[in-house]
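Objective 1.3, modelling of assemblies. Example input:
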Amino acid sequence: MNNFEYVNATSLKEAAAALASSWTDAVVLAGGTDLLGLMKDYVMSPKRLVNIKNIKELGGITKSGAGLRIGATVTFDELANSALVRQGYPSLYAAVMGVTSPQIRNMGTVGGDLCQRPRCWYFRLGHGVLGEKDGKSLVADGENKYHAIFPEGRAHFVSASSLGPALVALGARVKLVSAAGSRELEAAKFFVAPQSNEAREIALLPNEILTEVVLPAAGKNATYEVRQKDALDWPLVTASVNLTMKGTAVTAANIVLGHVGPTPRHAAGAEQALIGKAVTADLAMAVGEAAVKGAKALSQNAYKIQLARVAVKRALLEAVGVKA
Amino acid sequence: MELPGIVRLDRDDDRCAMLRWKGMFIEAEWDPTVPHSNDRLFWCHNTQKCLGPDSKAVDEYDCNETRKCYQPL
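Predicted structure (tokens):
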């Protein structure tokens, strides 16, 4: 990797001041589980790293009137050991436990998970986030077994965030801070589909720091991940659901698919199919079918459509405690 | 000799000489009472990546003699 300047910030103000208007000048370092690999492969070569792990206000999991606040440097291990998360947000807990490596759980952070770069091998080989060479998509005619079934424009990679689908389904908000001030975004709007190789797949600006995630009170929620193996890997497909219930009837539903497109994907049509009804195995199957409407398989990833159907069905049944 | 991992050196003599996997670097006799596992982590010794010189994915099935970059053991 290239040489870089290192800033060990101890306050948010100091960290924000050390950032710049370009990703090549400075980037935030938290757990480093993704960033350092990218730097070793020369996919990213920032001139300065700004360590935020020693900023106390970026840690901690606290309950307040607004819901649950999770600091950006909270690790996966801390999330896994939080009774507040495990009891109130089982969908988030399931997503955390999907990261099966203790080493990554000890180092990886909430902010880092949301900001991690795509796992697309063409991106990791230096062909940019769109995976293009000479203006032509390497994904469309190449190895695409893990790519999107819901591409957005030229973006065929899938969002790598493990927590993203659950946070979007739970209606989380993220707080972004820069030297100039702060802003809040819905988690759903934090993920964006870039349409150029220079653009990022998140709404964070180079001079901003993701400082916290705030979760509102949740309904019945669950996450179901379809995985190729039990050892550390990203899911092939994830479904996260959050249901507001009146008795046994669903009054509001959030269904979000992960690892099927460049952003966690709201299955809006499928959500509507649940309203006013009790979740049964048959209904869950029908909702799973509705969730994959419009999916476009590439040459090697049609299997993901079936995985998405099943993931939605199983997440719904798990949320309401119905056995499949 | 058998090494940990799904690829058994004594049974896969048609695999590419450039195929690498984690279990290959564990110098231990395989315990026959432990089922083979597959961590699905393969890479090409030539490119040091999960795609081979022909930009195709690397694994124990696909790294065979049908590929131009194939090198016999």
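The first helix of chain A runs from residue 12 to 18.
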